[in-house]
Each structure stands twice: as structure tokens, then as C-alpha cells.
Fold:
Amino acid sequence: MLAVCLLTGCGGQKGSLGTGKKSVIIPKADGKEALSAEKLVVDISHLDLGYMMVCYTGSARTLFVQLVGEDQTEYKYFMEPSEEYVTIPFTSGDGEYYLCVYENVGDDRYSPILSQMLTVELKNEFGPFLCSNQYVNFTMEDEAIVWGAELTGEITDDLEKVQEVYHWVVQNVEYDYDKAVDVSTGYLPDINQTLKTKKGICFDYAALMSAILRSQGIPAKLEIGYLTGDVYHAWISVWLEEIGWVDNLIEFNGTEWELMDPTVASASGSREVKERQSEEGTYIVRYVR
Structure:
């Protein structure tokens, strides 16, 4: 059932690999080391950069990858058969991860086809937050990424880049209330579509901003959890040289940050944003993508 092999039959994403502390990482499935089972291939060549890549070409309608790190947070990544690889990050950082892949065998029933313990030792802690993945999905050729580079132009300061991207998203992307009601289970953002329509839900806002910042070498976390205790929500945190991780924050008044949540700021306005941020336990992180 389980073997280490060279990759065949699936097309990996090609591209240059950033080598600096904050360089964008382009995921690659180059077959240096991989696990396989039936029509499944899991490329583990670049665990040290913070990701693995999965390709499934079997007959089951769906597959899901379960990943559990030492913090015991369980991540599930669902995918359909495709020749393309899906990138999955190791967002829990260094340590041992339990990997198990399940194949759909009918209705909502799944059967395991591969399991393995993986040891991750990151070259730098920012790796998982500088690359594309299933949730923050981008290539350097994407319209949204090219546009983001044009938006920031000649700006060299990361703080100013974050401000420029953030303010554009808040001022130009409208919250899509109809989509929020009808969004299907397993929905994944399309950053190019969000840019084109200038509409989206919290997931779209967070993915667009995270992708643009990562593509410019600024570590960004897409965080999923609960707002005010019971509202399922997505937002972002960023890492800046002068400050470190800026969590759940948004406006910089020259002295301090307040709430980095483009959805709430766009839909509610800054006064309500500040009021909600002041509530105890407003943001509860469940997953980091």
C-alpha cells in the first residue's frame, strides 16, 4: 500500500524557489522523495520549505488528506481526481506530523489508503506562509498577483505595501451577502475572480490579500475561526520586520495597529470594527492556512 517512489503521471507546478528569509516560495513536485498508494502520489521533497504536494488520479469522486501536527490541530484537505498537484502547508511548524489519506467509498464514507509519520524541520519559520496552497492559491502569472505588483509599484517598505494592498481591498471589494448565504461546503477562493468581480465573502477577502502579500515576500497567515464567539469567519495576520506578527489587526495610525480584517472593515466601517475588536475573545483561531 505504501512506497517511496519517483513521481510519474502527475504534473507538478514549475517555478523558481526563493532562497531568502522572506522570499516567495514556488511549490514544486520534483520527485526527489514521494509516497504512493494506488493512484495517489504525495511529494515530500520539500518538507523543509513548509509544504507537501498531493496528486490523485483514481476513480473515487473525492479524497481527503488528514494532517495532525504536535499542537494536535487536525487539518482536512478535500480534493477531486486531477492530474494537477494540490499544495498542503505545514502550518503547525516544526515537529512530527501524522498524515493519513482517505478515499471516498460511497456516500459520506471514506477508507484510508495511506498513512505515515512525517518529521518537519523548517529552514525558516515563515516557509508555510510564503507559498501558495489549496486555500491561498496563486501563481506568479495570475492576474491578481501581477496587479498586486503594479499596485505597490516602487514601494520597498513592507509596512507601506501592506497598507496599500489593504486599503485598496477594503475600498474596492464589496461584501457579497448573497454568496455568503449560498456558499457550498468545500468552497475555495479564486483570487482572480475576486479581483474581476470586486465582490466576495470573508474567505475571498483574506485569500486575495494573503496571496498578494506572499507573492511579494511578506509572510501572511490566512486564519479561519470564529468572530464574536459563533460567527464562522476568515481573516489575516502578517509578519513585519519592525513589529513581528501583527495578529487580527487592520489600521495603522502611525503608532499602533487595529484589526487586520479586511472583510469586517469593508462591510462595517472602522467604528464598528474598533468596537468589536475591543470585545473579549472576539477572534478565536481554529485553523491557519
